[in-house]
Amino acid sequence: MAGPRRRTVRDLRRNNRATVLSKLYFEGPLSRQELGPLTGLSSGSISNVVSELVADGLVEEAGSVDSDGGRPRTLLRVAPGSGHLAGVDVGETRVRVELFDLSLKELARVEAPLPDGRYDAEGVVRLIADGLTRVIAEAAAAPASLIGIGIGVPGIVDASGPEGAVVHGQTIGWDAVPLESMLRAQDELLAALPLFVDNGAKTLGRAEMWFGAGRGARNAVIALIGSGVGACVIADGVPYQGSSSSAGEWGHTVLQVGGRECRCGARGCLEAYVGAEALLERWREAGGSWSAPDEEGALAELLDDPSAAGVLDETAEFLGAGIADLVNLFNPERIVVGGWAGLLLGPRLIEPVRRAAAAYALRHPLAQTTVELGRLGPDAVTVGAATLPLARFLETGGTRREPIVSGAS
Question: Which family does it belong to (predicted)?
Fold first, then answer.
């Protein structure tokens, strides 16, 4: 059996670059003097690493601050314009592609409806490839500046096989769709670009943990409520994947044995009661109707209809019971409710949801948990998708072209 690989000078250099780059990204701007105690590196190592990163165009000066009795200290930050990231959200009704700089400032976006409103895999691949071409052109970005592309999809993502990321989307009719290999076969840019594919709820979770309502928590659950329902479970600061990356399918936990039929084919799933599609169907059964052509507009009409109060009260109890399950199972310090439907319903339902959760959860773990709304808006899945190549970029010390790796980091 082979022994552990010996660390080389190259490994040490890359690790030092990664440490400095990550500190500047998440805690910057910082001075060279501040980087020492934050990284544990010597002043000589800091000086060498910073000089390299500045020479590579990855780090730039960001002003200065006075020091006690000495020369002003120069502040450093990761240069936002030194690279670009693409994020894709394969949503319920459309595909959204966004281009960001390294600070995750949006530079361009393209949205296109799903072909015939259906999850045709070949059609989705074409929309992603076309959207990527268009946002690059709109932002006048050089294709070589792209660090990678992250893609959030509905369903379970398995990146363990030779075809790269394969998507099992039972609710959308995707049975082992080889999405990564299909994308790489679509055009030359996608063939060469590092691709990272993950479940949309998990990309939402990454975004909220990095920049939103989950920031600072070590144990949290980020819930996505859209047409369907999912979750990202964070355990000790790391997304919990399970044995085959399917952990977090909260929407398909059973709320009522023999209950309403879910899109997955089972009965009584949480999604069959609180997902936007199911909520609208329950409203229709109660006599409601809408004129909007899409679910987002229809849900807005439901919220404006006084006669829908009973359906909303029922939904709050269902959702509160589902959140109580998360409290009892995972003992998180924070539960964040996001997704376009979750954010639309949130201002109206968050308080009754909290009360319902208190009625169903064990008192001791509930007392340690806060239930909050997401802070990043409906674009959080796309932002989170872009953090997938960004995380790899930071972990490798700013290396632009690592060997192509499938799946989420």
Answer: Belongs to the ROK (NagC/XylR) family.
- For the ranges 68-72, 192-196, 329-333, 386-390, the lowest mean pLDDT is seen at 68-72
Distance CA 326, CA 348 (A): 21
Query: HSE on the CB side for 368, CA within 13 Å?
Result: 14
Judge whether 82-202+381-395 and 217-375 match in fold: yes
Question: pLDDT digits over 221-232, tens only?
Answer: 999 999 999 999
pLDDT of 122 higher than 50: yes
Cα separation of the two ends of the chain = 27
Q: Which strands sit side by side in the sheet containing 166-169, from one edge to the other?
A: 156-158, 166-169, 174-177
CB atoms within 10 A of CB 3: 5
Cis amide linkage into residue 29, ω under 30° from 0: yes
Question: Which tokens in the block code for residue 385?
Answer: 């998708």
Q: How far apart (Å, rounded) are the C-alpha atoms in residues 402 and 389?
A: 11
pTM: 0.89
Query: What are the angstrom distances between the C-alpha of 2 and each of 5, 7, 12, 195, 279?
Result: 8, 15, 21, 30, 56
Question: Would you say domain 9-78 falls under CATH 1.10.10.10?
Answer: yes
In 312-376, the DSSP E strands lie at 334-338, 370-373
291: amino acid identity, one letter: S
Phi, psi angle pair for 34, to nearest 5°: -70, -30
Neighbours of 148 (CB within 10 A): 25
* pLDDT tens, residue by residue, 35-63: 999 999 999 999 999 999 999 999 999 88
Domain ranges of the chain: 9-78, 82-202+381-395, 217-375
Domain 217-375 has CATH 3.30.420.40: yes
Spatial separation of the C-alpha atoms in residues 352 and 312, rounded to whole Å: 10
Specify whether domain 82-202+381-395 bears CATH 3.40.50.720: no
Contact predicate 54/60, CB 8 Å: yes
For residue 245, is pLDDT > 70?
yes
Measure the CA–CA gap between 70 and 51, rounded to whole angstroms. 22
Q: What is the pLDDT of residue 407?
A: 43
